[in-house]
Specification:
7 helices; alpha+beta; 26 strands
Length: 449
């Protein structure tokens, strides 16, 4: 028995010597662990020029380099950018480095493979397809708001559809992760991992919601790089025949951060809308988090008669946005915040504005059409509707889901609502038709024609 035990001991010692005989890597003592310099949270956004995209990612440690490698036609092309340190405002003050690289002079309608990182570590290889050039093509987008880290019911369906090439871009209409600042920003990190399968393939365009408010929206401003935004949280971009406008409704509610953002955004928005060449971009679609109208049974601002974003700040009634939408002929307004879906008839001043054909209200409408799509899924679950049903509310649903926007041409847009609870079934489907793009001319006094 003793002899057998000794044999086993000698065998184990021999194996240990074999293992130790393998060469080791000479790692400098001050080198950070590889896992902390590995790229994560990779996501795309449209660039400031038509042939560009920006790619953003994060590393925990400083890497000294921000590089994107683009693979096309058997060749590798290198783009360099920069990184900024972001320190979360929570009690642990966790920090990370946010990297941004602009990919320029891209070919239109072209599939690229790419990866990001530095000499300390590289991401997986991702695939993306650039948008067609010009205005005469038919963009397809998914739009939704209020998607959290928990209960993100719509996310698997959207991930599959993006992988199938269904969409050219994504628009997240505010409220992300619930909340990105939660647990010292770790919930935000996990959420960025969750959306990477989508956002690494198509541009992931955003606006802030009320759940991004922490530390003056610092997580939102740091993690997302939108074209021409410059941390202002309002910007615009063009996709095909559509001019999209992203605004922050939160300026009207977080006045503790100052009044200047309200005024600056209003001034910018009027100039932006006035500058749109409707011969090139006939459609104008605006999106922001809090809706001007809703019929939910909570106590949110849109359940009241005078919504701040619609009529202006209380008492002074200044910088309201609804009249701007009328004056510049905004075709479609997309909101979220309410954890439900609601489609309005063409509406102004809480009144249905009749179209030329009363039986076809979305054919050449004379006022903006409002959509609320805040039911992507989060830990706060659904928002139910109240018993009253104003005539301006045409369709509503509490199903978890998201909105599809298909721009057929200069005169036709299709809007569909997809139910995630019904395994992708389309539960609402309309065609918005407009042959006369431009300002809506209508005088309404005291809510009457």
């Amino acid at each position: 028995m003793i002899i057998q035990t000794m044999e086993w001991i000698l065998l184990v010692m021999a194996l240990c010597k074999v293992v130790l005989a393998y060469p080791t890597v000479d790692v400098p003592l001050n080198s950070p662990p590889l896992v902390r310099v590995q790229p994560r949270h990779v996501h795309l956004a449209l660039g400031e020029s038509p042939k560009s995209l920006s790619v953003t990612w994060s590393t925990v440690n400083k890497t000294g380099e921000s590089i994107a490698l683009l693979y096309v036609d058997g060749k590798e092309e290198q783009f360099k950018g920069a990184a900024k340190q972001f320190v979360d405002g929570g009690e642990k003050h966790l920090s990370q480095w946010i990297h941004k690289v602009v990919l320029s002079n891209l070919k239109s309608s072209h599939t690229y493979r790419y990866r990001v990182g530095s000499h300390l570590g590289w991401s997986d290889v991702f695939e993306m397809r650039t948008l067609p050039s010009g205005e005469n093509w038919s963009p397809r987008l998914a739009l939704f708001g209020d998607m959290g880290n928990e209960n993100a019911v719509s996310l698997p369906l959207i991930q599959r559809e993006v992988g199938e090439g269904v969409y050219d871009a994504i628009i997240h209409v505010g409220d992300m992760a619930y909340d990105m600042a939660d647990k010292n920003g770790v919930r935000g990190d996990i959420f960025m991992d969750q959306i990477e399968p989508i956002a690494s393939m198509v541009p992931y365009m955003t606006c802030p919601g009320n759940h991004e408010w922490h530390y003056n929206f610092s997580n939102y401003k740091a993690r997302f790089n939108m074209p021409g935004d410059n941390r202002n949280m309002f910007f615009s971009f063009d996709i095909g025949p559509v001019h999209f406008v992203s605004i922050s409704t939160e300026f009207y509610y977080f006045l503790n951060y100052g009044l200047k953002p309200v005024i600056a955004q209003y001034t910018w928005l009027e100039k932006d809308l006035a500058s749109v060449d409707r011969s090139k971009h006939p459609w104008i679609v605006i999106f922001g988090h809090r809706p001007m109208y809703c019929t939910n049974n909570d106590r949110d601002d849109c359940t009241k008669f005078e919504t701040r974003t619609r009529t202006g700040l209380p008492l002074i009634n200044m910088w309201g946005l609804e009249k701007l939408l009328m004056d510049y002929g905004v075709d479609l307004a997309v909101w979220a915040h309410e954890h439900s879906y609601e489609r309005l008839l063409p509406t102004f001043n809480r009144t249905v504005v009749p179209s030329p054909d009363m039986l076809q209200p979305y054919s050449d409408p004379s006022a903006p059409v409002h959509i609320t799509t805040g039911s992507a899924g989060c830990r706060e679950k659904h928002d139910d509707f109240g018993p009253s049903h104003p005539d301006w509310s045409a369709f509503r649903s509490t199903d978890y889901g998201y909105t599809r926007l298909q721009v057929a041409n200069a005169t036709h847009i299709r809007v569909q609502q997809v139910s995630a609870e019904k395994d992708g079934e389309v539960i609402d489907d309309i065609w918005l038709v407009q042959h006369n793009h431009g300002p809506f001319k209508l005088n309404i006094v005291n809510n009457e024609f």
